[in-house]
Amino acid sequence: MNPDLAWEVWSRERSLRIESVLDRALAGADGSRRLHDAMRYAALGGGKRVRALLAYAGGELAGADPDHVDGAAAAVELIHAYSLVHDDLPCMDDDILRRGKPSCHVAFGEAIALLAGDALQSLAFEVLARAPAREPAAQIALLAEASGVSGMAGGQAIDLSTAGETLSLNELERMHALKTGALIRAAVRLGAGCGRPMSVDENDALDRYASAIGLGFQIVDDVLDVEGTASSLGKTAGKDAMQRKTTYASLLGPSAARERIEALRADARAALGGFATARRLIELGDWVASRTH
What phi and psi values does residue 206 have, to the nearest 5 degrees? Predict the structure, then answer.
């Protein structure tokens, strides 16, 4: 762990590291070869790895050995990969492009894609259960809550049930706090949970940071859906407008949405004011606010 590494070097090293960790986790699988291939297709070789980076950055803040954070970082990425596979299914968002290549159900068929998502979710908890941590049961409970009805799945259900409706800003923020933000908050806390014990106030500060980052990430996504292209985003552009979804861009307009992103960046920095070792989390917040894909 070198605290002097430039952000670009650190993030690239950690991205390569998590790719290797995921490759090992997905290396040996009994049963269907096609299912195994679909799992690897969905989880490897693409994506921004934001959740893994947040886990590693949270671990650095808590003085954790990166070897001890690998399991937490892999678990959040596996949950994210499963959610994308299910998100793209015809019964959900019905998208044919993900990470610059055909969606999993296009490449492998709907049934295998559904099973691949299920298996990736199960693997996430297996990997986390085997990972070293101060409180392994608490780590598993944290990931389960972030993934389930009180988190990502619950947010997706709200998204589906309100398609075509105009949501208020508060309703939109609540939905995304569950759909996107819950797993981002969990990633930071899971990484920190691999290091020194954190006080209640410190955990609250990490939650405030991650909540700001999670919301900022979603608003950037909404703006890029309007301003980006399929080639730059690696997924279908303009999909929100086609599906008549309420977004931050549609409610606020792109300019005001950008202002909200900057305010959230400042909130994230302020939340970390009590930590002396928050450099990577700050850099991640800056990257989330300024990303172009």
Answer: -65, -40
Do residues 290 and 223 touch, judged by C-beta distance below 8 A?
A: no
Dist. CA 127–CA 77, nearest whole Å: 11
> What Cα–Cα distance (Å) separates residue 130 from each residue in 9, 112, 126, 195?
29, 26, 6, 16
153-195 tens-digit pLDDT:
999 999 888 888 889 999 999 999 999 999 999 999 999 999 9
Q: Is residue 1 part of a domain?
A: no
Q: Which domain holds residue 142?
A: 7-290
User: Hey, CA dihedral for 71, 64, 265, 7, is it positive or negative?
Assistant: negative
**DSSP assignment string, 164-228:** TS---HHHHHHHHIIIIIHHHHHHHHHHHTTSS---HHHHHHHHHHHHHHHHHHHHHHHHHHHH-
Count of CB atoms situated within 10 Å of the CB of 248: 25
Residue 126 within a domain? yes
CA gap 243, 98 in Å, rounded = 17
The CATH number assigned to the domain holding 159 equals: 1.10.600.10
101 in a domain, yes or no?
yes
Number of domains in the chain: 1
Question: What tens digit of pLDDT does each residue of 57-81 get?
Answer: 999 999 999 999 999 999 999 999 9
In a domain, 214, yes or no: yes
Mind listing the pLDDT tens digit for each residue in 191-207? 999 999 999 999 999 99
